[in-house]
Amino acid sequence: MSGDRLEVNVTFDERGYIGSAPELRLPVMALSLGGLRRKIEIAMLPDDVRVVLQLDGLAEREWERHRRRAQEQVL
Fold it and tell me: Which of 21, 43, 56, 74 stands the most exposed, by the fewest C-beta atoms within 10 Å?
């Protein structure tokens, strides 16, 4: 799978972001999308994959909420 694209379906629940893909043995969980991407990259070692996160509606809304909250703190 060297250099391939890995599409990961992402949802969100009270525990955080949950990513799943056929290439992953188990779903991967993290509190942030960056953390989720890092955990997936580690799980796929030694393969060199380009991780593409496909957010569902719940994950998209949570990401937007976090983004807005971060912008408010800057102002």
Answer: 74
State how far the Cα of 41 lies from the Cα of 63, in Å rounded to an integer.
20
Q: What is the pTM of this model?
A: 0.84
Reported as a single tens digit per residue, the pLDDT across 13-33 is 999 999 999 999 999 999 999
Tell me the C-alpha distance between 74 and 24, whole Å. Answer: 37
Domain extent for 62: 4-74
Any idea how long the chain is?
75
C-alpha distances (whole Å) from 27 to each of 20, 40, 61 are: 5, 9, 20
Handedness of CA 59, 64, 69, 74 (dihedral sign): positive
> What is the number of structural domains in the chain?
1
